[in-house]
Amino acid sequence: PPSSPSLSPGTSVPPPPGGWHRGVSREPGTRWTEPGCRSCVCQEGRALCGGVSCSIPCSHPLPPPAGGCCPTCTGCLHEGVARAEGDVFSPSNGNCTICVCLAGNVSCLSPECPPGSCPSPSPSDCCSCHPAKCSFRGHTYAHGARFSLDGDGCTTCVCQGGEVECSFAPCPILDCPQHQRHLRPGQCCGGGREPPASAGCFLDDNGVEFPVGQLWSPGDPCELCICQADGSVSCKRTECRGGCPYPIRIPGQCCPDCSGG
Questions:
Q1: Residue ranges covered by each domain of the chain
Q2: pLDDT at position 204
Q3: Which of 32-36, 137-141, 151-155, 183-187 is the most confident on average?
Q4: Distance from C-alpha of 255 to C-alpha of 73, rounded to nearest angstrom
Q5: Half-sphere exposure (Cβ direction) of 61: Cα atoms closer than 13 Å
Q6: What 8-state DSSP symbol labels residue 175?
């Protein structure tokens, strides 16, 4: 068999068609990564190097693995926590929001509660809050609804979780007696009443009343009083004129009788 060619002293090995870089022979068009995330390519016997350009096709990539330069989409980094592919989790303040990690992307869904309910912070029952309606005097009111009692505007009511709470308009303190107070239509608070023409006259706290036009003597036969139309009492005293030597005084009569001479 033919012997292998041998190099005679003084001959040199031709350089590789690509080139040498840091003691390593590289073929033309070869690409490799240098420490410090520098990408190199062998062109025309020289190494052309530059910074690694990363294309990240996901929204929540994981940090580069050990020895790697670019983040990866084999999992998700969400709120500083690494999530595995397909991991289902709830964010720290999600209020029943559910998230899933898919190919480096985090997608979240929030619960849609039916009408009349509200989201709950408990994942076990996301729509546990059901504000109750109020049934009051034949009407149904939604939670938080405000309305006026009897429509008079004097009482304000509100529906709170199935219960009706009402508050009344405060009224001023009147200095007139109770029997002289009255409530006009459309008013919330009573006022002092002006006695009507047919009311008569009140004489004392015992409720003694004289009708309008009534004449009476308050105890002195010479004094006569009358009840006026405005509820006031008007009195007039009778003065006896003249006299006689031997007057005859009749009980209940103001002036003496002088007919006897």
A1: 19-51, 57-113, 134-168, 209-237
A2: 64
A3: 137-141
A4: 126
A5: 13
A6: -
